């Protein structure tokens, strides 16, 4: 009986102690005490975990590095391919813009038939201003045909082979073209210079020519059709003792960047040489 | 025979390079003339026996590509080859210096012939402007290009004409 009573008492005391501890824990009174025990455990866990992860990363590093290198190479190749594509697209865009401008020019001047050509080379002699284009007699190109861009006059065909033609630029020192100056309507002659520029010669003294005036082909002489823009007067030299005025002209075509041109194929230059009386 | 035949593709490539790339490397209005420099570098080599053939082919190729009056470049290159062969006989083992001197003389000769032909064909080209704007800058550019071209064609000549060693 005594034994049974003492065991019961022990059980009751234990239950009370447990309930008391639970009550204290729920009341937050055991937190400082638990910190003392729990914190070292957590720190130990953190230390072991970090060491484990370090060892794991060392073991798996070679495989990751290999994958990263492979991925990096793939991305670099992709970047290179995209850069090439961008350059190609920019070139196509540039060509499309030029061709679009040429089409606009052709629509604005429907009386002529045009053949587009690419400039492939320049004359190897520095004394001459000629370019070679990639169409020739097989494409209907003939000597003397005028060559233009969407901006204005370029020159004329001076030699033809089956697949290529040589164009004498208006800047060639041997080139001379009859022009008309607007708004005065004065007739003059555009002559190429050794510097690659062009100048207006033989302007009548009485003509009222000013900087900014437009220079167009006059059609006289039969070498070029009329009303193709050549350039703009940039300066006039007039001296009372001279027979004619002279002027410098800024060409509308940038000859250093010329890449695509139009050949006017239905214009036949007139050779009036036989009509000039021989002395 | 091989040394002569090989000049055809070489000058074909050179005229393409001249008319597409070298012509855009201008100083004022002057440009280098890599065909002229090749003719000089080839004729300057002691063991080369095809200098005249090379200058004829160079002249014909240039004539084909240029609007200069027919035969001007051919006559100019033959004259330059003659001057080069003369200089080669009278100089002693200083080909690089001779190459530079000949680049200068060759440019003057080539431009002299070109200017004369253009003037004779009725073009009122101002000679002093041409010298100042074209010839003098071209001389400078040719002197710059002379050294690499000499090195390339000296190696080619050594390959085509190996030195004979007496055993």
Notes on the protein architecture:
The complex is a heterodimer of chains A (279) and B (167). Chain A is an alpha+beta fold and 279 residues long. In chain A, 37% of the residues lie in helices and 27% in strands. Chain A has a six-stranded antiparallel barrel. Chain A has a six-stranded antiparallel barrel with strand order 6-7-8-11-10-9. The longest helix of chain A has 78 residues, at 31-108. By secondary structure, chain B is an all-alpha fold. Chain B is built from seven helices and no strands. Chain B is globular and about 65 Å long. The mean pLDDT of chain B is 90. The A-B interface holds A 120-128, 130, 132, 158-159, 166, 168, 173-174, 194-196 and B 15-16, 18-20, 23-24, 26, 29-31, 33, 35, 62, 65-68, 73, 111, 114-115, 118, 121-126, 129-130, 133-134, 138.
Please describe the topology of this protein:
The complex is a heterodimer of chains A (279) and B (167).
Chain A: H1 2-26, H2 31-108, E1 114-122, E2 130-133, E3 146-148, E4 153-160, E5 165-169, E6 176-182, E7 186-192, E8 198-204, E9 214-217, E10 229-237, E11 244-251, E12 260-264
Antiparallel strand pairs in A: 1-2, 1-12, 2-5, 3-4, 3-12, 4-5, 6-7, 6-9, 7-8, 8-11, 9-10, 10-11
Chain B: H1 2-5, H2 7-20, H3 34-44, H4 51-65, H5 72-90, H6 95-120, H7 127-160
Helix pairs in contact in B: 2-4, 3-4, 3-5, 3-6, 3-7, 4-5, 5-6, 6-7
């Amino acid at each position: 009986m005594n034994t049974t009573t003492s065991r019961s008492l022990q059980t009751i005391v234990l239950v009370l102690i447990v309930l008391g501890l639970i009550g204290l824990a729920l009341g937050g009174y055991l937190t400082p005490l638990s910190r003392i025990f729990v914190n070292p455990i957590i720190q130990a866990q953190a230390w072991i975990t970090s060491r484990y992860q370090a060892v794991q990363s060392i073991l798996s590093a070679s495989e990751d590095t290999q994958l990263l290198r492979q991925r990096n190479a793939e991305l670099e190749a992709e970047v290179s391919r995209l850069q090439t594509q961008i350059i190609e697209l920019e070139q196509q865009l540039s060509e499309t813009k030029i061709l679009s401008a040429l089409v606009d020019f052709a629509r604005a001047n429907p009386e002529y038939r045009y053949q587009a050509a690419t400039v492939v080379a320049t004359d190897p002699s520095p004394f001459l201003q000629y370019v070679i284009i990639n169409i020739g007699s097989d494409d209907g190109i003939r000597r003397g045909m005028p060559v233009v861009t969407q901006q204005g006059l370029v020159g004329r065909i001076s030699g033809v082979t089956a697949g290529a033609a040589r164009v004498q630029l208006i800047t060639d020192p041997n080139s001379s073209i009859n022009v008309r100056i607007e708004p005065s309507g004065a007739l003059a002659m555009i002559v190429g210079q050794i510097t690659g520029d062009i100048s207006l010669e033989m302007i009548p003294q009485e003509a009222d020519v000013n900087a900014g005036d437009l220079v167009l082909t006059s059609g006289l002489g039969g070498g070029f059709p009329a009303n193709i823009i050549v350039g703009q007067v940039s300066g006039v030299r007039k001296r009372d003792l001279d027979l004619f005025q002279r002027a410098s002209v800024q060409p509308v075509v940038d000859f250093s960047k010329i890449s695509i041109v139009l050949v006017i194929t239905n214009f036949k230059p007139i050779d009036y040489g036989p009509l000039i009386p021989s002395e | 025979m091989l040394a002569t035949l090989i000049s055809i593709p070489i000058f074909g490539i050179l005229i393409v390079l001249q008319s597409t790339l070298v012509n855009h490397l201008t100083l004022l209005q002057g440009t280098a003339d890599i065909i002229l420099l090749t003719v000089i570098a080839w004729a300057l080599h002691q063991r080369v026996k095809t200098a005249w053939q090379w200058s004829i082919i160079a002249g014909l190729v240039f004539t084909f590509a240029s609007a200069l009056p027919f035969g001007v470049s051919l006559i100019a290159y033959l004259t330059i080859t003659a001057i080069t062969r003369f200089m080669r006989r009278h100089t002693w083992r200083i080909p690089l210096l001779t190459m530079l001197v000949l680049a200068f003389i060759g440019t003057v000769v080539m431009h002299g012939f070109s200017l004369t032909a253009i003037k004779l064909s009725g073009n009122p080209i101002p000679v002093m402007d041409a010298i100042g704007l074209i010839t003098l800058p071209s001389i400078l550019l040719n002197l710059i290009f002379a050294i690499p071209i000499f090195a390339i064609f000296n190696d080619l000549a050594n390959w085509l004409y190996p030195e004979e060693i007496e055993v």
